[in-house]
Specification:
The complex is a heterodimer of chains A (about 150) and B (about 500). Chain A has about 150 residues and is mainly α. Chain A has six helices and no strands. The chains are: A mainly alpha (about 150), B mainly alpha (about 500).
Chain lengths: ~150, ~500
């Protein structure tokens, strides 16, 4: 979209990212505290796995998503954060992405999994959650209104 | 359970309960705003959606209150608080959108334009229907915000929030700037992909023409980064190679920057030409009236070309339009008096500006002989219909004015004005009259606009009824506009009749 700064802050995207990170984190926490997974938890984990898959593909293809392409889908914003394209965000190494994707898969399929690795995944989604909330607070609605001529 | 843990639970539940209270307040606030009698139906629909969203957040908070994972003794309190705060952020997001909708006030805009503009926007964006909501804002600016960015609902796919300066809501002539704004979604949906390769090719062409300047800029950037310059004398392979590598990389970066600037300027100029195609010189007059006084500088930016270049391109386009469509020549001749002062606008010293601006100016200036401008113009002509070939737009405007005329008798007022001039009217007797709210320039601009449309369409009945002569246009149209804007009740009646409220 057209915008003087060349970048687009999408509040909706940040809210969705924060929400997504929270639900995935909750599903992982359920595994840790021994509460059976519900359908909603499994769906959240599915989305988390898909997020990692896309991040891995983007890494492999060396085509990091830009802010513009990341805009308007919370998931894509989370992806941008994982890839370190958002100011102040963090990079997640490829091997860690692969490992955490496998953790999510095993939690989803209710297979054995190391609790430390689940805790590590929870920590990552906690960071994503915090970053998305922070981006939302710093963004402003005027950032994505097309200015006059 | 330890004492600290119990306090954690207590603290988290306290925060949760406060969040629930905030949701309740938010729902009440939305209901209060929704009680307002909006002139158009869309704001009410949006507020309904927002109320549903707020209530859904309340339901989620209630669900959270019973969540066995969140309140599990092993779950750290950070997880709970983050879950609550994420929901609170959703509330804040609803609040932001309520503020957008709460500020709308379509009744302050001359409504006879709205239907025509909506239909026009649908044509430009190549979609079935576009719906507007209008928002006066305390900025000297026109903006457009596609509502799909604020609302996920499919109904919002082609709805636009347009804003205009609150102080100038009544300045109908300025509203031709909306047509520039409507160009943005049309450009992004239909033109962007087509023009991108041309932008890259044009940038490459300018790159060849401005090689010396570009190389000098790349050298300057490398030195500023601390890259050691190539050694003097016989080449030293390793160092030279490093310099060359960095030079090539920096040059590519600069090329990308040039493409981005040229593309942004192209979009702006496309929108300018879109508006000029639709309303001719009236757009230019509005541009002068609103943009020029508030420019911080006449220099370009990464997103916008400077006004000098924009006016050159507009002028050239309007002259070509007159050549393409002889019916427009009389209007263009009238415009000549407006174009005159523009020649006094100072051209920026492009050679001293950043390289991307030099490149964009080189490509887009009508004087440069670049054929990119022809491509740009062709894309405007392909997408944007001339009013001559767009009877529905004209019909809409005509119908709006006709309905307005039925509601607002303007003849008596015109007679009064005539008597006043003759020295026997109410004004002559010392009776205080409200001064016109439109400036002379606004009236002239609006007259251009309407006169152009009427002339092309041949609204004979109007000519007969008002003894239609160009010199009387300003009087008739000014009074129509003023009466319309002042007659809020009549406006509401019109809207109810025509919008099914």
């Amino acid at each position: 979209m057209h915008n003087p700064g060349g970048e687009l802050a999408d509040l909706r995207g940040w809210v969705s990212s924060a929400e997504e990170a929270t639900t995935i984190r909750r599903a992982l926490r359920a595994r840790l505290v021994g509460v059976p997974l519900g359908d909603g938890d499994r769906a959240s984990l599915d989305r988390g796995i898909a997020l990692f898959e896309r991040a891995l593909r983007a890494t492999f293809a060396n085509t990091p998503p830009t802010r513009a392409t990341a805009a308007f889908t919370g998931d894509a914003q989370a992806l941008a954060m994982l890839r370190g394209n958002v100011s102040g965000s963090f990079l997640v190494e490829r091997t860690k992405l692969q490992r955490l994707r496998d953790v999510l898969k095993r939690v989803h399929d209710q297979e054995d999994v190391d609790n430390n690795e689940v805790a590590e995944a929870i920590d990552l989604f906690a960071k994503l959650n915090a970053r998305a909330l922070d981006c939302f607070r710093r963004a402003s609605v005027s950032d994505f209104i097309i200015p006059e001529s | 359970m330890t004492a600290a843990k119990a306090w954690d639970d207590l603290g988290s539940r306290f925060v949760l309960n406060r969040a629930v209270e905030r949701v309740q307040s938010l729902v009440r606030e939305i209901a209060r705003i929704a009680a307002k009698d909006f002139a158009f139906p869309l704001p009410g629909k949006l507020l309904d959606l927002l109320r549903e969203e707020a209530e859904a957040i309340g339901a989620e908070l209630s669900k959270l209150d019973q969540d066995p994972v969140i309140w599990n003794p092993q779950t750290p309190s950070e997880d709970r608080l983050d879950a609550i705060r994420t929901l609170a952020t959703k509330m804040q997001w609803v609040h932001v959108r309520v503020s957008v909708v709460a500020g709308v006030d379509s009744s302050r805009l001359p409504f006879e334009m709205v239907g025509a503009f909506e239909e026009l926007a649908a044509g430009l964006m190549n979609c079935r229907a576009v719906e507007f909501i209008l928002q006066p804002k305390f900025e000297y600016n026109y903006t457009v915000l596609p509502l799909r960015k604020l609302f996920k609902q499919p109904a919002m796919q082609d709805a636009l929030l347009l804003s205009m300066p609150s102080a100038d809501c009544a300045s109908v002539a300025l509203h031709t700037l909306f047509l520039h704004e409507l160009g943005h979604p049309a450009f992004q949906q239909r033109i962007e992909k087509l023009l991108r390769p041309y932008v890259v090719v044009a940038t490459a062409g300018a790159d060849s023409a401005l090689t010396a300047q570009i190389d000098a800029e790349v050298n300057r950037r490398l030195l500023a980064k601390g890259v050691p310059p190539p050694p003097q004398g016989p080449p030293h392979n390793a160092t030279l190679s490093l310099w060359q590598l960095q030079f090539g990389q920096e040059r590519l970066t600069l090329f990308d920057e040039c493409v981005r600037v040229l593309f942004a300027w192209t979009e702006e100029l496309w929108c300018d030409l879109c508006a000029a195609r639709l309303v001719g010189p009236a757009y230019l007059c509005a541009y002068e009236a609103l943009i020029l006084p508030f420019l911080a500088t006449n220099e370009p930016s990464h997103s916008h070309p400077d006004s000098w270049l924009r006016l050159q391109v507009l002028n050239s386009f309007l002259n070509d339009e007159a050549a393409r469509e002889p019916q427009l020549q009389s209007i263009t001749a009238l415009f000549g008096t407006y174009a005159q002062p523009l020649s006094g606008l100072k051209q920026p010293a492009y050679a001293t500006l950043p390289i991307p601006y030099q490149v964009a100016q080189y490509v887009l200036s009508p004087a440069s002989g670049s054929n990119f401008l022809e491509v740009l113009t062709a894309s405007v002509l392909a997408i944007v219909p001339s009013p001559i070939t767009r009877p529905t737009f004209l019909d809409e405007i005509g119908r709006g004015l006709q309905q307005l005329e039925q509601l607002i008798p303007i003849d008596p007022y015109l007679h009064a004005r005539g008597s006043e001039r003759a020295g026997s009217g109410p004004g002559a007797a010392g009776e205080e009259r409200e001064p016109p709210r439109l400036t002379a320039e606004e009236v002239v601009s609006f007259v251009f606009y309407c006169y152009w449309l009427f002339k092309l369409k041949g609204y004979g009945q109007w000519a007969t009824r008002f003894n239609w002569q160009p010199e009387r246009c300003d009087e008739v149209l000014t009074q129509m506009s003023l009466k319309a804007l002042e007659a809020a009740d009549l406006r509401r009646r019109f809207l109810k009749q025509n919008r099914g409220l």
